[in-house]
Amino acid sequence: MNGEGIVSTSTQWRGAVGRSTAPVETYLFSTIAVIAIVAFAVGGGAPPLAAQAVVLAVLVAVFGLPHGALDPLIARRIGLWRGSVSFAIFNLGYLVAVAAVVVLWMLAPGPSLVLFLAVSAVHFGADWNADRAVWLRVFAGVALLSLPSLSHRDEVAGLYETLAPGAGFAIAAAQFWIAPLALVGMLIGAVLAARRGRPWESVELTLAAVLALVAPPLVFFAIYFCALHSVRHLREGFAAESRGRLTVGITVLYTVVPILAAVGVLFAVSRGASLDARLLQIVFIGLAGLTVPHMILVGLDARHSTRTRSVLV
Ligand SMILES: CC1=C(/C=C/C(C)=C/C=C/C(C)=C/C=O)C(C)(C)CCC1
Ligand SMILES: [Fe+2]
């Protein structure tokens, strides 16, 4: 382990739990969330689904994808590749993982969607209470993804049916029943975060819960994912990598390549389906594919950081 690695992992750890003021994404997310909550609470109607799907696809591409684009740098920091040959192998492994998820989805869409929701709940829940028990984070993630089914059950079921025909209604129904309990866990998380000296996390958790209940599901997801989750990971990622132009270059490259692949898929497959159905499939099945190798790397990084910290103290 070199000195650079020690500095960067400890920077990331500080970024996650050791700050004393609210980070920039708290203000960004809170401002947008409050405007959306007020707009939809006073009776603002949902925009047409096709418009929501197009806006979501653009926002995810521009603001969401970059937060996973730092993966090659994380992999380098934790020693998964060093030269051009191991870099090529890393990229190949990443692509195989993405392709395996997409193929699995084609073969078994219902179980794949359930698995995707479960893995995403763990992934999103980790945005808060980083130094607390894991069940608190899982509750927050489960609540985040179940609350839309509590207030917009038919809409969510319709979206799920687009992704997993025949399974969407049952999954939305299950979430409808899970949501109240998960919400209690999420609110306990909000109280505990405040008591740990991170009141901004309580604000985020509360606003995310209200937004998930009030806004149309895709609007809620776009705001949470792009203004909070992605910005948080990008900020922490840039602090941990701190390699200047190389970091920016890698982020741009690894954002642009998946976008080009997605555009290719959009024009290449299922021309029979409507544009919004195709966009939703590409956005969410694509995210599922990217999330698996991304979460494996984040997990390896966390293990690596823990080991580095125990060496340091
Ligand atoms: C499909 C769908 C949903 C779930 C989306 C998920 C689970 C996204 C996961 C993205 C990930 C894990 C990105 C990685 O950073 C909602 C919002 C519940 C309701 C609307 C339809
Ligand atoms: Fe993520």
From TrEMBL:
A cellular-component GO term for this protein: plasma membrane
Pfam families reported in the protein's UniProt record: BCD
Enzyme superclass (EC): oxidoreductase
Binding site for Fe cation: H67, H123, H229, H233
Keyword tags: Cell membrane, Dioxygenase, Iron, Membrane, Metal-binding, Monooxygenase, Oxidoreductase, Transmembrane, Transmembrane helix
Record's bilayer topology term: Multi-pass membrane protein
Coiled coil (residue ranges): none
Superkingdom: Bacteria
GO MF assignments: beta-carotene 15,15'-dioxygenase activity; carotenoid dioxygenase activity; iron ion binding; monooxygenase activity
EC number, UniProt record: 1.13.11.63
Catalysed reactions, as listed in the record: all-trans-beta-carotene + O2 = 2 all-trans-retinal
GO BP field: carotene catabolic process
Transmembrane segments: 24-43, 49-66, 87-108, 134-151, 163-193, 205-225, 246-267, 279-300
Compartments, as annotated in UniProt: Cell membrane
Principal location: membrane
CC cofactor: Fe(2+)
InterPro entries on file: Blh_diox
Annotated function: Catalyzes the cleavage of beta-carotene at its central double bond (15,15') to yield two molecules of all-trans-retinal.
HAMAP family per UniProt: Beta_carotene_diox
Similarity comment: Belongs to the Brp/Blh beta-carotene diooxygenase family.
Protein name in UniProt: Probable beta-carotene 15,15'-dioxygenase
Classification of source organism: Bacteria, Bacillati, Actinomycetota, Actinomycetes, Micrococcales
